Amino acid sequence: AIVPHQYEVQVCYKNAVTRVPGLAGKLQVNFELDDKGKASRFTADSSSEIKDKAFVDCVLGKMPFWQFPK
Q1: N or C: which end of the chain has fewer CB within 10 A?
Q2: Alpha helix (H) ranges present in the chain?
Q3: Segment 20-51, tens digit of pLDDT
């Protein structure tokens, strides 16, 4: 379900890497899905390797518009 939104994440990454050269790692996001596939309550998991707030906020800010399978 995230693959269709890969470009959006890449845009966030490209913006972040200009500020933080060498930015790399995993961003794990926790969220809840309702019965219609709408997600809410997005948080970066504490196990995420990427801690850059601007990158994390960028990705989390895009996720409310994504539709997930029911």
Answers
A1: C
A2: 6-19, 53-62
A3: 999 999 999 999 998 888 889 999 999 999 99
